[in-house]
Amino acid sequence: MVYTLLGADGRPYRSAVPGTLGGHRRLRIYGLLTCPSARRALARGHYARHRVFFADERTAVAAGYRPCAVCLPDRYRAWRTSPNVEAWRTASSPGCSSASAPATRPGAAPRSGGSSSRARGGGCSKSGRAPG
User: What is the pLDDT of residue 10?
Assistant: First the structure.
């Protein structure tokens, strides 16, 4: 069987060996293949078209992906407190930084209760607008 993995340059390549980590192409998150959050999303019919696989963690990080907060909480906390987190956001979402991203869509009412996507580590999308 042949598998398609992402390399450190973010480009797909064919491999005879399956990946050890999965990821979400649009959110640029990587995690365990057994991640309960990813499994729930897949079971609901979401996520599959954005699913990517990596040979190892070093490759996922080199490709610009961050650790999943659910299945890799220690690595996620280390990433969140890293001085490189802002550089990662800027590189993964060109033209958007957390300081310049709007907290809500233009004309949308502020959200009440719960945590915002910015507090969860989001805040930017490829369009330069805050998700949500």
Answer: 92
Give the DSSP per-residue string, 69-110: TTT-HHHHHHHHTSTTHHHHHHHHSTT--TTTS-SS-TTPPP
Count other Cβ atoms within 10 Å, centred on residue 30: 29
- Given a contact cutoff of 8 angstroms between Cβ atoms, the answer to whether 53 and 21 are in contact is yes
Contact 71/31 with Cβ under 8 angstroms? yes
Structure tokens at 113: 């209760």
Q: Six-digit token pair at 74? A: 């220690």
Instruction: For residue 40, report the phi and psi dihedrals to the nearest 5 degrees.
Output: -65, -45
Give residue-wise pLDDT tens across range 32-75.
Answer: 999 999 999 999 988 889 999 999 999 999 999 999 999 999 99
